UniProtKB/TrEMBL annotation, chain A:
Domain Tripartite ATP-independent periplasmic transporters DctQ component: 23-153
Transmembrane segments: 48-65, 85-108, 128-149
Name of this chain's protein: TRAP transporter small permease
Species lineage: Bacteria, Bacillati, Bacillota, Bacilli, Bacillales
InterPro entries reported in the protein's UniProt record: DctQ, TRAP_DctQ
Keyword Transferase attributed: no
Main location as per UniProt: membrane
Gene Ontology terms describing biological process: C4-dicarboxylate transport
Compartments it resides in: Cell inner membrane
Organism: Psychrobacillus lasiicapitis
UniProtKB/TrEMBL annotation, chain C:
Keyword Mitochondrion in annotation: no
GO cellular component: plasma membrane
GO molecular function: transmembrane transporter activity
Chief site of localization: membrane
Membrane topology: Multi-pass membrane protein
Pfam families: DctM
Keywords noted in UniProt: Cell inner membrane, Cell membrane, Membrane, Transmembrane, Transmembrane helix
Transmembrane segments: 7-37, 57-76, 144-169, 175-200, 220-243, 249-267, 279-300, 312-333, 340-359, 365-387, 407-425
Organism: Psychrobacillus lasiicapitis
The protein's name: TRAP transporter large permease
InterPro entries linked to this entry: DctM, TRAP_DctM
Domain TRAP C4-dicarboxylate transport system permease DctM subunit, residue spans: 13-424
Location relative to the cell: Cell inner membrane
Length: 164, 309, 435
């Protein structure tokens, strides 16, 4: 499990770093094209926005894998043993629920709507842009599964060692 | 007032504020339908884009979250090529010709039905005024446009139009235009007179030149499933309501244009009459090139010429 | 019970419970929104609409300034650009209690004002100033709190997209007048927080110890010139119309990158890769929250919650002073659950007529509304600036909140002044003949 997660982390991190570099270059190019070539690029603004959504949603999945999203930890910091275990599993399941219904199911339907729409500036079908929603949904669900398995393993180990 | 009841709620969205002609049109539609069938339907109007921006609202319409959306025709270009026709420079002789064409049902049926296979059905149109150039310097001849950075909404036709005047097109969101005009990121904008007052562009661009290079239309579109779910009698009443919204909105628009022109003059904006022929002449190759690259528009183009001339 | 009341209660209690359980805030907002929207929409329409709202909440060009300024801030930090700037600032202000915190406030007012994004300001300043203040022995929760508390000032000090949005929805209030009107309230917000920081720092003994010689000062200043150039290029580029604020944020990345890789040679390729990943992750955390709150804003307006709340509040009295107080409390409450722009779009048409009837001008009302809703950007559970500031400083919400409380008090005092004394909003515009 740990290995799958490490590979996913590596690939997603590389994708995010690449997208962010690409965005920086594109935004700089947008300024230069306006002054040096005096012909503005009409597609760069949309391409930038869409890359931004991609990096944000892929990054969102990556951060769910690392359990690093913003939360309030007043309660979870105080819990130990079985209670802490149950709360952690509940958290993962609730995230998985949202990832499945909103990102995966909802996102797939958004892709369907996008398929019959042509981006006026990029001249491609919008489903290629919206597809990041179900992709990140799948990624989040995989991370949830890995996290749950690891939580169970840790819980069993600490039980064996008699800590509980 | 929001009580759960058996009434069917019809959700209508527009990006315009409640002072806008389109809102007044939609309000007339609401009042009419609720007076006729208030026991069965409640119409909810969402203004100011609180439900979503233009293209987003159309997607919500397709998903069934919204039943009706008032939007600019250019946002429908993503769903049907027919809407690209309105981007052609100097397509209509003038605004009167534009309205004559839009009142021809044979023409509007083609437009209304063009998006039907995508789940979007056109039901009414709203006058959206004439696009002119405005800047902090006087634009009297096409030469005055040379080298200016002009803000346009992102579309091929708009960019080609500006380049046809040997100017540079800058694609930018409407909300950023004020600051961009103020600090010189752009030199000029192109919009109907409303922008001077509603968006206060008149504070930073003092010359409004009536080049009349484009006439766009706004549209009221419906979710096809919603229309199909109506009985014949209900559909008839809604149809009357759609027609009424168009009439009321267009009258309010004309009234508003004259008010806005007065207000802008008080703001210190000078309105400049130009020799339109000079500008139109320069755009001929642009118009022809766009028709060549979008051959499916040719038939519509001829139809328009036939109606207006 | 009406739909709006049911939906409102569902949202409120779901969020409170899920937050206390420690569920990620964005997930809590989405769960609450979906529960509420199914009151009026079928599941099959609600689910794809929510997904679309998540996407479109992020798909906003001006938000690009956030990842870019986070990236620039990280590069400036690792590349030694930031430390040179701070050395200069300390050399100038070192003897004032809490001088680093005061520098942070001034930087937020300038930076937020130019970038037009409080979230970008809080991210950039947090990543630059945070580590340095920590090194000087400042409590990290205090450091994060003052950074967060003053980041929204840039939303009031022009240029401000929030005020442009208000100008549009209010039916054409002069943008120029609003821009001028926002200056005094924005600066007062900053100053009131500086006063609080002054006394806190004095109590804690955060005072620069050594006095530096003129010679040392020149050395520090000379050393800071290439770093200062970054600020000059970005600020003058934006103000001078060479590029937009969003583009300026990318230029800041390129300049700081060139400076640290070629000139200072402080960052190698491997470090750059790590910086890129960290910046992408941080902005993803912020963007997921922005996307989630966009879902919630949609659900709130679609279920009619704003109208319901306004009717509730406006019915309580006909005394103008009480009504204004009630409106402010309503807006503060709204601000806790709703982001700035949707709140302006929704509440302007509802409240403006009421306030005009009380004799307010659209200009005064606009400044009061925006000021009030800006406070909402730094209150949980929906507060983009608050969360960005917390994440960038790697502190905990529950540890920072007690520190922010004293700043809330100072800011609310200014809000009361802005509400009841039109002068603060109208003086500069009337000086320019605009009101
Ligand atoms: Na600002
Ligand atoms: Na808040």
């Amino acid at each position: 499990m740990g290995k799958v997660k490490r590979i996913m982390d590596k690939v997603l991190s590389a994708a995010c770093a690449a997208l962010l570099s690409f965005m920086t270059l594109l935004a700089t190019y947008q300024v230069i094209s306006r002054y040096v070539f005096s012909s503005p690029s009409t597609m760069s603004e949309d391409l930038l926005s869409y890359s931004f959504v991609w990096v944000s949603l892929l990054g969102t999945a990556l951060v769910f894998g690392q359990k690093d999203h913003m939360n309030l930890s007043i309660l979870s910091d105080r819990l130990v043993g079985v209670n802490k275990f149950v709360l952690s599993i509940f958290t993962e399941l609730l995230i998985m629920f949202i990832a499945i219904i909103v990102f995966l199911f909802g996102g797939t339907q958004v892709v369907g709507v996008g398929a019959i729409q042509i981006s006026p500036t990029l001249n491609i079908s919008m489903d290629w842009i919206y597809i990041v929603l179900p992709i990140s949904g799948v990624l989040i669900v995989i991370y949830n599964c890995i996290n749950i398995i690891q939580l169970i393993q840790q819980f069993n180990e600490s039980k064996k060692e008699g800590i509980l | 007032n929001g009580e759960i009841s058996s009434k069917r709620i019809i959700s209508v969205a527009t990006v315009q504020p409640e002072s806008h002609a389109i809102y007044l049109g939609l309000k007339a539609f609401k009042d009419y339908v609720e007076e006729e069938m208030g026991d069965k339907f409640e119409i909810r109007l969402f203004t100011n884009g609180v439900i979503g921006g233009n293209s987003e609202a159309l997607e919500l319409l397709q998903m069934g979250s919204l039943d009706l959306v008032a939007t600019s025709g250019s946002n429908l270009e993503a769903f049907a090529n027919e809407y690209k026709i309105f981007g052609l420079p100097y397509l209509f002789n003038d605004e009167a010709s534009f309205r004559k064409v839009m009142n021809d049902e044979e023409f509007t049926d083609v437009i209304y039905n063009s998006t039907a296979d995508k789940g979007i059905q056109g039901v009414a149109w709203f006058s959206n005024g004439v696009n002119n150039f405005y800047a902090s310097k006087k634009i009297e001849t096409p030469e005055d446009l040379k080298g200016l950075k002009i803000r346009v909404q992102s579309s091929e036709a708009n960019v080609k139009l500006v380049q046809g005047f040997d100017a540079a097109a800058v694609v930018m969101a409407y909300g950023e235009v004020y600051t961009a005009l103020q600090n010189g990121v752009i030199d000029a904008g192109t919009n109907p007179e409303m922008a001077l007052v509603d968006m206060k562009h008149g504070e930073v661009a003092k010359y409004y030149s009536r080049t009349e290079h484009q006439i766009f239309t706004d549209m009221l579109v419906a979710n096809t499933d919603f229309l199909d779910s109506l009985t014949v009698e209900e559909r008839q009443i809604f149809q009357e309501g759609f027609k009424l919204s168009s009439q009321v909105s267009n009258e309010a628009w004309d009234k508003r244009i004259s008010e806005v022109t007065k207000e802008a003059t008080e703001m210190g904006v000078e309105f400049i009459t130009v020799d339109k022929q000079l500008f139109e002449e320069m755009q001929k190759p642009v118009k022809e090139a766009l028709l060549v690259s979008n051959p499916e528009l040719q038939a519509l183009y001829e139809k328009i010429q036939q109606i207006q001339n | 019970m009406s739909v709006a009341v049911t939906a409102g209660l569902l949202i409120f209690f779901t969020i409170v419970i899920l937050l206390l359980l420690g569920i990620p805030i964005g997930i809590g907002l989405i769960v609450a929104s979906i529960l509420a929207i199914t009151q009026v929409l079928g599941f099959s329409a609600a689910v794809p609409s929510s997904a679309l709202k998540m996407f479109q909440g992020i798909n906003i060009f001006t938000l690009l300034a956030i990842p870019f300024f986070i990236l620039a801030g990280n590069i400036m930090n690792k590349g030694g650009i930031a430390v040179r700037l701070i050395n200069l600032a300390t050399a100038l202000t070192g003897r004032i209690p809490g001088s680093l915190a005061q520098t942070n406030v001034v930087a937020n007012m300038l930076f937020g004002s130019v970038s037009g994004s409080g979230t970008a300001a809080v991210s950039a300043m947090g990543s630059i100033m945070g580590p340095i203040q920590k090194k000087e022995g400042y409590d990290e929760n205090f450091t994060a709190a003052i950074n967060i508390a003053t980041a929204p000032t840039g939303l009031l000090i022009p240029p401000s997209t929030a005020l442009i949005t208000y100008a549009l929805v209010s039916g054409g209030t002069s943008v120029a007048a609003l821009f001028l009107g926002g200056i005094i309230p924005g600066i007062l917000w900053g100053i009131s927080c500086m006063v609080v920081a002054f006394f806190y720092a004095k109590k804690k003994g955060y005072v620069g110890k050594k006095q530096i010689t003129l010679n040392e000062f020149f050395k520090v200043a000379l050393d800071a010139i290439p770093s200062l150039l970054l600020i000059i290029i970005v600020v003058f580029g934006i103000v001078g119309g060479i590029f937009t604020a969003t583009e300026g944020s990318a230029i800041a990345v390129v300049y700081s990158l060139l400076l640290s890789t070629i000139f200072y040679k402080t960052i190698n390729l491997k470090e750059l890769y790590v910086i890129l990943i960290d910046s992408a992750k941080l902005s993803a955390i912020i963007m997921f929250l922005i996307g989630s709150s966009n879902i919630m804003a949609w659900v709130m307006s679609f279920t009619g919650i704003p109208d319901m709340m306004a009717n509730l509040i406006l019915g309580i009295s006909d005394n103008p002073i009480i009504i204004l107080l009630a409106i402010n409390i309503l807006l503060l409450f709204v601000g806790t659950f709703m982001d700035l722009t949707p709140a302006i779009l929704i509440f302007t048409p509802i409240l403006l007529p009421v306030c005009l009837a009380l004799g307010m001008t659209p200009l005064h009302f606009g400044i009061m509304l925006t000021f009030n809703l800006c406070i909402g950007t730094i209150t949980p559970p929906v507060g983009n600036i608050l969360f960005a500031g917390i994440k960038v400083s790697s502190v905990k919400l529950e540890k920072v909140m007690p520190q922010i409380l004293k700043f809330y008090v100072a800011i609310v005092v200014v809000l009361i002044l802005v509400t009841y004394f039109p002068w603060f909003s109208t003086f500069l515009p009337s000086l320019a003949g605009l009101s």
